[in-house]
Amino acid sequence: MSIIGCVPNISEGRRADVIRRLSSETSAVRGVRLLDVTSDREQNRSVFTFIGNTASLGRAVYRLMKIAIETIDITRHSGKHPRMGIVDVIPFVPLRNVSMELCVRLARRVGKEIGESFGVPVYLYGQAATAPHRVSVNDVREGEFEGFARKIKLPKWKPDFGPERVHATAGVVAVGARPPLIAVNINLDTPDLPLARKICDGILRSCGGEYLKALVVGRGTGGSAKIAVSVLDFKRLPIHRVVEAARRLARRQGAAIEGVELVGLVTAESLFGSLEHYLQLVDFNPMQVLEFHLSRRR
Amino acid sequence: MSIIGCVPNISEGRRADVIRRLSSETSAVRGVRLLDVTSDREQNRSVFTFIGNTASLGRAVYRLMKIAIETIDITRHSGKHPRMGIVDVIPFVPLRNVSMELCVRLARRVGKEIGESFGVPVYLYGQAATAPHRVSVNDVREGEFEGFARKIKLPKWKPDFGPERVHATAGVVAVGARPPLIAVNINLDTPDLPLARKICDGILRSCGGEYLKALVVGRGTGGSAKIAVSVLDFKRLPIHRVVEAARRLARRQGAAIEGVELVGLVTAESLFGSLEHYLQLVDFNPMQVLEFHLSRRR
Predict the structure, then answer these.
(1) Global ipTM
(2) Is A81 an active-site residue?
(3) Which residues of B participate in catalysis according to the annotation?
(4) pLDDT digits (tens, 9 = 90+) for B274-294
(5) What's the half-sphere exposure (Cβ side, CA atoms, 13 Å) at A172?
């Protein structure tokens, strides 16, 4: 059985009724499973995690976009996470028995549909990008919604699909394809944002910037400074190396990690490496884990 | 879907052809899956891990017993692990949507069949035990095969099924039901067995003897002293607490853990607690792990 993941980031993390409607109406799409919704009040952002195939995910994203346009206004959005649209970014992820190529084609098809059906400018990014300067979603998003009125006029930033004019309430959207990643929020036991930035820079330096992204995204509900980390290549950089680096760097500043939040979906494979490390497991075979075994026999 | 585990321990860990035949002929039983076979040369013992339902596991155990009687002679067995029979112990384990009660009934049915069909004395143990002194398989096994000629004559040790006479080549067998456990071998970086015993005693003391069993079982292939640990209640005693205790106690003796081998099957749930501990995960939801999620939707 082949499985594609889709992890839209929505610029709404506060209004429970809107998040609930987005969840219930998209999860009702045949063939799609909504595995997780993680909302963050401070970031005012929600991460939806779907799995499905090309057809069902296409339908779910269409539905998501439609409801988001009805319920969210980017001009009224404020939050700690940078954003350029109400549905800020839509990555497709090859999870099992699926090529990256297929996810790239799906991103193009869905991007085209969003541009044509909703009149929202679409930028293809990641493996689906049409130019090297558009690969990183951070580069695409630079200037955020407010800056796009001008940015979109630059030939370099002509959208891949849709009008060459920012949608008044929906902004613009990035649609792309990328490998599975591990997204975590590292919460520190201090509200000190400059100190958090120092630790964040240290993480990027010590873990190798090409394998992860890290960004201080403000304070959590308890007031603790929050570093959002995405590990882009868990085989080269297992998650425990990031957590250990953060722990060490925090200690050096007289601080500590308060807790680590896993955001969205991960594959078991991306966690087993850390388990092996900490427990010093030798000759560990994932098939010894009942659920892993069962999931492989479908 | 309901799933029962069955984890027979066979007193043969060296002859590859015998282990292969036991594996291939039992895994061919309809409705059974053989998930893992872990053999240990020094212990001269193999642990088979099956999953299935009451009917299919009954058939697999019958087949296993039959082949073992044809191929293994307990009077010729020598190894580091104590044993009383060629199929030393047959535990049934409720893994999913199955009551312990059902596993107890299955143990009784299978025990009766082994006693009657093969003329091998059977002791019910664990949750299936017919008396308190028979709950622990270590107590049942005390004296090993060599001691059973006399032990079996004691009224206290009258078998639950089968003849009141040890089978000449198969010995006796314990059949029972127990909760899922985590079995690991902790290999030290030293061949020093008395030192390993000190560490083993320390583990038992510091982790609470009611939640685990621990036993020095000799040296591994590389010559390292090996402590076999079974965690009986991973909710009360997560595996990382055992490993950390072993690490600390070894360090105090100027030694270290060389590696930890996971033996047989575990449930993801029994590992997640350790992952949460080491990575300081907060609000972790197992459903965020793709394979765990998929395995639940069957």
Answers:
(1) 0.79
(2) yes
(3) 81
(4) 999 999 999 898 888 888 888
(5) 32
Residue B256 lies in a domain: yes
Q: Quick check: A268 contacting B, CB < 8 Å?
A: yes
Report residues of chain A scoring pLDDT below 50. Answer: 298
Do A71 and A150 lie in a common domain? yes
Window A:63-92, CB contacts with B under 8 Å: none
CB atoms within 10 A of CB A232: 16
Containing domain of residue A229, as a range? 182-266
Q: Which two tokens stand for residue A104?
A: 């790239």
Is A283 contained in some domain? no
Residue B49 contacts residue B264 (beta carbons within 8 Å)? yes
A194 and A51 both lie in a single domain: no
Whether the CB of A51 is below 8 Å from some CB of chain B: the reply is yes
* Interface touch A95/B298, C-beta < 8 Å: no
Contact B255, B195 (CB under 8 A): yes
Indicate whether A51 and A151 sit together in one domain. Answer: yes
**Do A141 and A214 sit in the same domain of this protein?**
no
For chain B, 298 residues long, the average pLDDT of each consecutive 10-residue run is: 93 97 96 91 93 96 98 94 96 94 98 98 97 95 97 98 98 96 95 97 91 90 92 92 98 97 88 95 89 73
pLDDT in the model for residue A51: 94
For residue A90, give the nearest of A141, A151, A14 by alpha carbon. A141
A215 lies in a domain? yes
Of A10, A50, A7, residue with least CA distance to A31: A50
Assess whether B28 and B146 both reside in one domain: yes
Number of domains in chain A: 2
Predicted model pTM: 0.79
Q: Is A154 on the interface with B (CB under 8 A)?
A: no
A95 contacts in B (CB within 8 Å)? 290
CATH number for A68: 3.30.990.10
Q: pLDDT by residue (tens digit) across B169-184?
A: 999 999 999 999 899 9
Query: Alpha-carbon torsion B183, B189, B191, B192, what sign?
Result: negative
Do B10 and B108 reside in the same domain of the chain? yes
Q: What is the pLDDT of residue A297?
A: 59
Under an 8 A CB cutoff, do A262 and B274 touch?
Answer: no
Rounded to whole angstroms, the Cα distance separating A149 from A277 reads: 49
User: Are B221 and B160 in a shared domain?
Assistant: no
CATH code for position B254: 3.30.70.670
CA dist list (Å): B112 to B11, B121, B295: 21, 9, 34
Tell me the CA distances in angstroms from B173 to A146, A256, B167, one per residue in order: 75, 53, 10
Same domain, A150 and A197: no
CA distance A240 to B277: 12
What is the least distance, in Å, from the CA of B285 to any CA of chain A?
9
| Interchain contact B97–A (C-beta under 8 A) | no
Contact status of B187 with chain A (Cβ, < 8 Å): yes
Domain assignment present for residue B231? The answer is: yes
